[in-house]
Write a structure and sequence with these properties.
With 128 residues, this protein is an alpha/beta fold. The protein has one domain: Flavodoxin domain (Rossmann fold, 3-Layer(aba) Sandwich), CATH 3.40.50.360. The chain is built from three helices and four strands; from the N terminus they run βαβαβαβ. The protein has helices at 41-52, 69-78, 105-114; strands at residues 2-5, 55-60, 91-96, 121-122. Strands 1-2-3-4 form a four-stranded mixed β-sheet. Residues 1-8 have low confidence and may be disordered.
Length: 128
């Protein structure tokens, strides 16, 4: 699981740079009592990086026909505070990878349905 925020828009050469991050393993379990004006440092860093990005690409495996709990926790931290969070207006894409004939389809569909609810722009087709 990872989020890949682009840090620069395409320049004159058409090149785009990416920053690969795996905040999922670093974040504490979401707790509204910790989500204050001074959240845990890793949360503040993640929110700032996502807020500075032009787009975010989320890759996910699939466990029991859904996204893993760690990715849900990432989304919970990124989508707060309500109506003022770092995903609003962000372009977001999703890809999934899982064994079996569905290849992560349920987890990708879950994210593709959720992303517009955050006020983010869902881009591109699903990738499995």
């Amino acid at each position: 699981m990872c989020a890949l925020p682009t840090t620069d828009r395409a320049g004159a050469s058409g090149e785009v740079s990416f920053v690969l991050r795996d905040y999922v393993r670093l974040l504490p379990i979401y707790d509204g009592d910790l989500d204050t004006d001074a959240p845990p440092a890793v949360v503040a860093e993640m929110r700032a990086e996502l807020g500075d990005s032009h787009a975010v690409l989320i890759g996910t495996p699939e466990y029991n026909y859904n996204i893993p709990g760690g990715l849900k926790n990432f989304i919970d931290w990124a989508s707060r505070p309500f109506a003022k969070h770092c995903l609003i207006g962000r372009r977001m894409g999703v890809f999934g990878c899982a064994p079996g004939d569905r290849g992560g389809k349920a987890s990708v569909e879950y994210l593709r349905n959720m992303i517009p609810l955050f006020g983010a722009e869902l881009v591109g087709p699903e990738l499995l």
